[in-house]
Structures are given as C-alpha cells and as structure tokens.
Amino acid sequence: MSGPDADQSEVAVKGSFWHSAKMVAWAFVGIRKGSEYRQDFGKVNPLHVIVVGVIGAALFVLALVALVSWVVPG
Asked: 16 near 47, Cβ under 8 Å?
C-alpha cells in the first residue's frame, strides 16, 4: 500500500504519542497488569517512550525540588 493509508496503518500498529505517555505514566506509578504491559509494549513507538520517560523524570525531579524548597525554609 502507498499513500495516506500506509501511514495510517503504521501509526495504528505503532501507537500514538499519548498512548506511549499513558504507558510510561503507569510505569512510573508501578501498577500494571502483565498482560496489558505486553499488549502495550507491542504497540508503542520506542522513540516516544524514551521522550516521554525523560520528560516524566525531569518533571518528577522538578516537583521534588519544588517540594523541598517549599518545606525547608531557605
């Protein structure tokens, strides 16, 4: 297949950025069924997972720094 249909089928197989973000968010929380993990793992784009993971880790660190700055008087 060529044209727009081929692009849509590839996106459907690889998953969207938001699907990857949801999967990484569940991984940060640490509660996920094994069967759902395996199903999601086959659908996501690895580049999306890396980008979302780095952004999520940076936001987590910034939130911790903000919390410590708020709790500990400076």
From this structure: no
CA distance 59 to 67: 12
Residuewise pLDDT in 10s, the chain (74 residues): 455 554 444 444 467 888 888 888 888 888 777 777 777 777 888 898 899 999 999 999 999 999 999 999 76
* Longest distance between any two alpha carbons in the chain, whole Å: 63
Q: How many C-alpha atoms does 74 have within 13 Å on its Cβ side?
A: 6
The residue extents of the domains of the chain are 4-71
- Residues in contact with 49: Cβ distance below 8 Å, sequence separation at least 6, in sequence order: 20, 23, 24
Q: What residue type is 53 in one-letter code?
A: G
